[in-house]
Amino acid sequence: MSKTWFVTGSSRGLGREFVEAALSRGDGVAATARNTRSLDDLVATYGDAVLPLEVDVTDRAAVFEGVERAHEHFGRLDVIVNNAGYAQIGAIEELSERQLRDQLETNLFGAFWVIQAVLPHLRAQGSGHVIQLSSIAGLLSMPLGGAYHVSKWAVEALNDTLSQEVAAFGVKVTVVEPAGFATRDGNNPDPLANGHMAEPNPVYDPLRRRLAGLGAKMPAGDPTTAAQALLKIVDSDDPPLRVLFGQGFHEQLRHVYADRLKTWDDWEHLSMEAHGALGQKSGSHA
Q: DSSP assignment of 71-88, as one string?
């Protein structure tokens, strides 16, 4: 059976690939972008199967209006892809209040508004699948990416919580954590050269030099195959809560999580002392 999608950030990147993959197999897509002219070619090819919507995800009212228009057009919503977002680059000390707030308004609150807008429809029909685009940056952290990491760690928690709240209504949740993916011209862009940049403080220049070109050195994933992988997830009867897209970080993640567990174990005596358990491992937990 064909599905109906609602995809944010559809004008380029993985979002565009997801839209094209869904349309090419006969699904319907409500595709949002800040400027829908980038979707004109899709309308010309697929007609009413694609509904272009001019939506800024930081505008809660616009998000709700877009969801309602999509539901009226297609009659239902099956797959919700929270893809809109960008990377704010800069050391913690370099970030302005506006830059941090803007990062969260788009990456976190934008996803939040979409979820709130679609849930009444998904609950009413007793089905649906929320796909949240996170990142490797939602699982580990690196210098100069503090704002972006904050936003992605937050959407990880948001959707983990959501999955527990909506399972009883037949709604599924999957957090997709991509590594580096090539652009359509085959390049793997350097995040330090292509992200939104804070005003640099020279004391962090050594870090910048060390990290320069890091993204370009990682294996660049193919966005078209990522889209095909997403189709398998949305067609699965038992999709994962979390899934990595791409390679190059699995081993690093194993070390990160092993190190966290070891640190908690090494300091367990102090944890018990702080709890007032005086080394006893029984008792209630918060």
A: HHHHS---EEEE-----E
